[in-house]
Amino acid sequence: MDEIKCLKCGSEKIIKNTTITDFSHGNIEKNLSVYIQKTDRAFFNKSVQGEINAQICGDCGNMDLKVKNPKELWKAYLKSQE
Known about the structure:
Strand content: 35-45%
Number of strands: 6
Shape: flat
Structural class: mainly beta
Radius of gyration: 17 Å
Order of helices and strands: EEEEEEH
């Protein structure tokens, strides 16, 4: 298995694939996501969602963020630029 190292301090103590959760009004949990809108229509707008995951260094606390579906988000972004 490939070991991941912290980009800041070089530690191999990495907490992988953690979700970042927002506790909104009424203490409702919602994982943070990014959205790319594919269309600019007034009705039936379509967007692509990418859930944000984090990797956290257990030594220095550095956190790297990633989305689960970057290729799908990229395609949606290109479509939104047409």
